[in-house]
């Protein structure tokens, strides 16, 4: 837990539960500019997708991102 939150895939992604949402963060390494546009934040090594409600979960998008970071 290098950043104080659990990381997975050798630090390539993380999940953190906050008061009113969940952040699903990903390493930016090897991602295309089009893929980077999907994320919130301005991090230089990792960025996140903010999920406030269950209906905000895009299973296809998240699955695609997890496959990209293998």
Describe it for me?
The protein is of the alpha+beta class and 70 residues long. The chain has one domain (7-68). It has two helices and four strands; from the N terminus they run βββαβα. A four-stranded antiparallel sheet has the order 1-2-3-4, with no helix packed on it. A hairpin with a 4-residue loop joins strand 1 (7-8) and strand 2.
Regions with little confidence, pLDDT below 50 for 5+ residues: none
Give me the strand/helix succession. EEEHEH
Q: How far from one another are the termini?
A: 19 Å
**Beta-strand content:** 25-35%
Number of separate structural domains? 1
Number of helices: 2
Structural class: alpha+beta
Mean pLDDT equals: 87
Sum up the overall morphology in one term: globular
The percentage helix is 10-25%
Largest sheet: 4 strands, antiparallel
Radius of gyration: 12 Å
Strand order of the largest sheet: 1-2-3-4
- Got a strand count? 4
Helix and strand topology:
Elements: E1 7-8, E2 13-17, E3 22-27, H1 33-36, E4 46-51, H2 59-68
Antiparallel strand pairs: 1-2, 2-3, 3-4
Summarize the structure.
The chain is α+β, with helices and mostly antiparallel strands and 70 residues long. The chain is 20% helix and 27% strand.
Record keyword descriptors for this entry.
single chain; 70 residues; alpha+beta; 4-stranded antiparallel beta sheet; 20% helix; 27% strand
């Amino acid at each position: 837990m290098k950043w104080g939150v659990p990381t997975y895939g050798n630090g390539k992604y993380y999940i953190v539960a906050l008061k009113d949402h969940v952040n699903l963060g990903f390493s930016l390494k090897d991602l295309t500019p089009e893929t980077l546009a999907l994320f919130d934040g301005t991090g230089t090594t990792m960025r996140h997708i903010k999920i406030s409600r269950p209906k905000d979960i895009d299973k296809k998008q998240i699955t695609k991102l997890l496959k990209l970071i293998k």
